[in-house]
């Protein structure tokens, strides 16, 4: 196992043009965890009922697509408010 593999993004985790959004998130664990909860929710276990017009969003498994969706609704830093 090459530990350097964990220092690089995979195609799924690469934020692409949204890299600056992630760079702006402080790297402490509580802030990273709160930011992740602010942006994503599991559609079955999150306790949130998605409206029918948003059900296709569960197929956004790539970080750049997740951030595209988030930023189309909330063009703000990721640590801003509850989404």
Structural account:
The protein has 83 residues and is mainly alpha-helical. Helices cover 33% and strands 0% of the residues. The chain contains three helices and no strands. The chain has helices at 19-23, 29-39, 63-73. It is globular. The mean pLDDT is 88.
Indicate the topology.
Elements: H1 19-23, H2 29-39, H3 63-73
Quick rundown:
This protein is 33% helix and 0% strand.
Strand content: under 5%
Overall spatial form? globular
Reading the helices and strands in chain order gives: HHH
Provide the structure class: mainly alpha
Number of helices: 3
Mean pLDDT: 88
Q: What oligomeric state do these chains adopt? A: single chain
Helix fraction by DSSP (H/I, runs of at least 4):
25-40%
Compute the CA-based radius of gyration.
14 Å
Largest sheet: none
Q: Low-confidence stretches at least 5 residues in length (pLDDT < 50)?
A: none
Kindly list the characteristics that best describe this protein.
83 residues; mainly alpha; 3 helices; 33% helix; globular
């Amino acid at each position: 196992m090459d530990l350097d593999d964990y220092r690089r993004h995979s195609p799924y985790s690469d934020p692409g043009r949204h890299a600056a959004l992630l760079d702006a998130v402080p790297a402490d664990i509580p802030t990273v965890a709160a930011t992740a909860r602010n942006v994503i929710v599991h559609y079955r276990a999150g306790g949130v009922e998605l409206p029918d017009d948003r059900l296709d969003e569960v197929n956004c498994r790539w970080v750049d697509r997740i951030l595209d969706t988030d930023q189309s609704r909330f063009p703000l830093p990721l640590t801003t408010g509850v989404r």
